[in-house]
Design a protein that fits this description.
It is a single chain. By secondary structure, this protein is α/β, with parallel strands linked by helices. The chain has a single domain, classed as FAD/NAD(P)-binding domain. The chain has 12 helices and 21 strands. Strands 4, 6, 7, 8, 15, 16, 17, 18 and 19 form a 9-stranded mixed sheet that branches. The protein has a 6-stranded mixed sheet with strand order 10-2-1-14-21-20, sandwiched between helices. A 3-stranded antiparallel sheet has the order 3-9-5. Helix 1 packs parallel to helix 12 and helix 5 packs across helix 12. The relative contact order is 0.22.
């Protein structure tokens, strides 16, 4: 499906996270009059607690060969990086069955290709927006250090490292001492590491989203804080977004509401196996150590990112209802994992956080025209790479909406693949 150039056309983007904001900005560039609508302010849902790493090397999916045999034990293991809220197990069972069907090499290779196709263009999507908003200083490209404390953990990650290497991702192998030369606060347990120079980070994912949203309004865009409940359907598709506090007339609708995209898509005739993979993190306001870049542990399953307001430690994934109460004890577990890696860290005054990532069983987002309506675009399901791929996703949404060919092959992300 294709639309026409955006002049004199009204677009409504549902969802003001980083993907929705980038989509709104690119629609503006194509001449649309754009309204961005969300029940909360820009960036205040999952984008707030993003790990902050621009994961150029994050092509490796959650579904890996052999995981089908390990998953049941991992969900029971208190030290495993994945948790399941058992009361939600019956509802989540169909998702897990689909997910386990992708835990084989042919599927993983295809998924890695699809993810890397977006990730390799992440700066192409973000750079024009950052430059236009005067926000270049909010993204720092100082690489990422991927560290290992045991040869066993390194061997277990060998296939994932090979996936990256075969896709041309630049990586430099280091000894433990060489890693400590880069990051002196690392403890003596680190024995091996890989440096990924193309990875970047943001100094504050919430403020980045807000700065881009402010740029959107400065260019004439409208941001509404309202909860979308339904759509009024006309002959060509939705002609009005219905929301608490007042609806919005539209010629084009973009659904970019993260985890909450599924019920909205259902109202538009499409259902997706989209679930909440809830991420936990802690923010340390005065960590006492100052890493110079993102650091990820290959066996502790934590990512550490220095930000303008402290040190963010992210990790652990919990499959549960998006609106279920958080279990902050899971966030606190990250502190013990961190101190083993950075022995001198100060964890006093830590602030826990939880937010739901939108995850699909094939670890590949949905980007493209809705199957049932010719004026609806979908842009959701980015799981761990939402920040990294928000810019290129927005660029693709703008290109599709304007009726031109997309700047890359989007077959792997088509909404009708489920």
């Amino acid at each position: 499906m294709a639309a026409t150039k955006g002049e004199n056309r009204r677009a409504t983007v549902v969802g003001a996270g980083i993907v929705g904001v980038c989509s709104a900005l690119y629609l503006q560039r194509e001449g649309f009059t754009v309204t961005l609508i969300d029940r909360r302010g820009p960036g205040e849902e999952a984008s707030t607690g993003n790990g902050g790493c621009f994961g150029y090397a994050s092509c490796v999916p959650l579904s890996m060969p052999g995981l089908a045999l390990k998953a049941p034990l991992m969900l029971l293991d208190p030290d495993a990086p994945f948790k399941l809220r058992w009361r939600d197990a019956p509802r989540l069972a169909p998702w897990f069955l689909r997910f386990l069907g992708h835990c084989n090499k042919p599927s993983v290779e295809d998924i890695a290709d699809a993810r890397f196709a977006l990730l390799s263009r992440m700066y192409d999507g973000f750079d024009p927006l950052l430059a236009s908003a005067g926000a270049d200083d909010m993204v720092i490209r100082d690489g990422m250090l991927y560290v290992f404390e045991t040869e066993k953990a390194l061997a277990q990650n060998a296939y994932g490292l090979d996936l990256r290497r075969r896709r041309g991702i630049e990586m430099e192998e280091l000894s433990g001492d060489e890693a400590r030369e880069m990051e002196p606060a690392l403890g003596p347990s680190v024995r091996r590491a890989f440096f990924f120079p193309q990875v970047g980070r943001t100094i504050n994912p919430l403020r980045l989203t807000q700065v881009l949203a402010r740029h959107f309004t400065d260019r004439g865009g409208t941001v509404l804080r309202r909860e979308v409940t339904d759509f009024e359907i006309g002959a060509e598709g939705p002609r009005r977004v219905i929301a608490a506090g007042g609806g919005v007339d539209c010629d084009l609708v973009v659904i970019a509401a993260g985890t909450w995209s599924r019920p909205l898509a259902r109202k538009l005739g499409s259902d997706f196996p989209l679930v909440a993979e809830r991420g936990y993190n802690v923010m340390l306001p005065d960590p006492g150590v100052a890493p110079g870049r993102c650091v990820i542990s290959g066996e502790r399953y934590v990512g550490i990112t220095p930000m303008e307001h402290g040190l963010r430690v992210a990790g652990l994934a919990e499959f549960a209802a998006a609106d279920a109460p958080p279990v902050y004890a899971r966030a606190e577990r990250l502190l013990g994992l961190l101190t083993g890696l950075f022995p001198g860290v100060n964890t006093a005054g830590f602030e826990p956080w939880m937010g739901p990532r939108p995850s699909l069983p094939d670890s590949t987002p949905v980007i493209g025209w809705a199957p049932k309506h010719g004026n609806v675009l979908f842009a959701f399901g980015h799981d761990h790479i939402g920040l990294s791929t928000a810019g290129i996703t927005g660029k693709l949404i703008g290109e599709l909406a304007a009726g031109g060919p997309p700047s890359m092959d989007i077959e792997a992300y088509r909404p009708d693949r489920f």
